[in-house]
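Priority: medium. Attachment 1 of 2:
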C-alpha cells in the first residue's frame, strides 16, 4: 500500500543531515546552505521557526528533492501483518481416521496411475485402469489429480485429497492485529468530521509503530471495520441523524 505522506514531516537541519537522504547534504552546514540557496525559509507553509530552547528552523519534507521524498514515503509504508502459514502435516494428522483413510485410498489410486504411466501405459488408459481398480469413474480420478495440482509434491497429497465437505476444509488464518490498533482506528474514524478512512488508518499505524503493536493492511482493516461495525452504525457515528436519512430502509 502506498502512503501520501511520511510519518515525520518536519525536519531540522541536523536531522536532515543525519538521515543520509539522497540528493541531500550530509552536514548541518550543508543543509543550511541548501536552505538559503533554495529559499526554503521563504515558504510560509513549508518552513517554520522552532519555539523554545535552541530555536532554529524546521523544514517540511515537501521541500526535499524528489528522490529524498520517495525514500521517506517508502520507509513509512506500513508492513502487512504476516498471516500464519497452514501446517499441512498437522492439519492432516488432526483429521478423523475415516477422512484420512479416504485420502490414503485416493493417493493409492493416483500412485497406481503414475506407476502404470511410467511403465509405458498412456495416461488416459492408466486413468481408466485406476478407475476400474477403485470402483469410481475416470472423471473422478482426473478430479483427484486436479486437487493435487497445486501441491508442492506427493508429500502434500494426503492433505489435498482429504474430503473437504466432511473435514471442514482448512480455513485461511485470519490476519491478526493488536486490540489497541483496532480500538484506536474505530475511535478515530467513527466520529463526526472524522475524515477519511485512510487518514484514520495512517494515524493508527503511526501509533502502532511507535508502540510496537501489530496492525493490519489498510485493505484488511477496512474489511474488518465493515464486518464488525454495521453500516448504519458507521453512518450515525460520522454523520449523525442527518446521515441516516440517506440510507435505504433495507439497512
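Attachment 2 of 2:
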Amino acid at each position: 500500500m502506498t502512503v501520501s505522506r511520511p510519518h515525520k514531516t518536519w525536519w531540522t537541519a541536523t536531522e536532515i543531515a543525519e538521515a543520509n537522504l539522497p540528493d541531500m547534504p550530509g552536514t548541518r552546514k550543508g543543509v543550511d546552505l541548501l536552505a538559503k540557496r533554495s529559499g526554503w525559509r521563504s515558504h510560509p507553509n513549508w518552513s517554520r521557526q522552532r519555539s523554545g530552547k535552541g530555536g532554529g528552523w524546521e523544514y517540511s519534507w515537501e521541500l526535499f528533492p524528489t528522490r529524498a521524498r520517495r525514500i521517506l514515503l517508502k520507509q513509512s509504508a506500513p508492513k502487512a501483518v504476516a498471516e500464519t502459514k497452514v501446517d499441512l502435516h498437522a492439519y492432516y494428522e488432526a483429521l478423523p481416521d475415516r477422512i484420512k483413510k479416504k485420502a490414503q485410498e485416493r493417493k493409492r489410486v493416483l500412485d497406481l496411475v503414475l506407476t502404470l504411466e511410467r511403465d509405458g501405459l498412456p495416461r488416459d488408459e492408466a486413468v481408466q485402469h485406476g478407475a476400474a481398480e477403485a470402483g469410481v469413474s475416470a472423471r473422478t480420478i482426473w478430479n483427484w489429480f486436479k486437487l493435487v495440482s497445486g501441491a508442492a509434491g506427493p508429500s502434500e497429497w494426503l492433505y489435498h485429497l482429504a474430503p473437504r465437505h466432511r473435514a471442514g476444509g482448512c480455513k485461511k488464518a485470519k490476519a491478526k492485529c493488536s486490540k489497541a490498533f483496532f480500538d484506536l482506528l474505530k475511535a478515530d474514524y467513527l466520529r463526526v468530521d472524522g475524515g477519511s478512512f485512510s487518514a484514520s488508518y495512517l494515524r493508527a499505524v503511526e501509533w502502532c509503530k511507535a508502540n510496537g503493536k501489530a496492525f493490519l493492511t489498510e485493505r484488511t482493516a477496512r474489511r474488518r471495520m465493515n464486518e464488525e461495525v454495521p453500516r448504519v452504525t458507521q453512518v450515525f457515528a460520522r454523520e449523525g441523524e442527518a446521515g441516516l436519512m440517506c440510507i435505504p430502509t433495507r439497512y
